[in-house]
C-alpha cells in the first residue's frame, strides 16, 4: 500500500472515530473497534479489551462526559495491504472542561469483512513517542 493511501484510510478512521464519539453513537463507534482490541499504557489498567472499552464508552456517552475528540500530527510508521501502524496526538475535551492530551500509537487492521478497525492502541510516554517518530523517519 502506498503511504498516501494508508494515511488517507487512517485519517478517515480517526475522523469517523471522533465524530461517532462526539455524537455519542455507541453502536457506530464500537463498530470501528476490533473484538481483538488491546490497549496498553492507560494508568490504572494493565490492558483494556473490547468489553472494558465498550463499558467505558457506554458510560461516557450516557453521562455526556466527552465534549470532543481531536487528532493531529499524524505520523505513519508502517503499512501493508491489511495493517496500518501510526502515531497521532489525541486531545479529548471533557464536558466539564477538562483536557486530556496524549500521543498514541494505533494499529488498524482490515478485518475479514473489509472494514478497517482498531486492533491495538498504546499510550506512549514521551521517550517512546520520540523514538517511534525518529524510527519512522529513517
Strand order of the largest sheet: 1-5-4-3-2
Measure the end-to-end span.
18 Å
**Uncertain stretches of 5 or more adjacent residues:** 128-138
Mean pLDDT equals 90
Q: Provide the β-strand percentage band.
A: 35-45%
How much helix is in the residues?
Answer: 25-40%
SSE order, one letter for each helix or strand:
HHEHEEEEH
Largest sheet: 5 strands, mixed
Tally of DSSP helical segments: 4
Shape: globular
Q: Briefly note the structural class of the backbone.
A: alpha+beta
Radius of gyration: 15 Å
Counting DSSP E segments of at least 2 residues, the number of strands comes to 5
What layout of secondary structure does this protein have?
Blueprint: H1 3-22, H2 26-30, E1 33-40, H3 50-62, E2 66-79, E3 83-94, E4 99-110, E5 116-124, H4 126-137
Parallel strand pairs: 1-5
Antiparallel strand pairs: 2-3, 3-4, 4-5
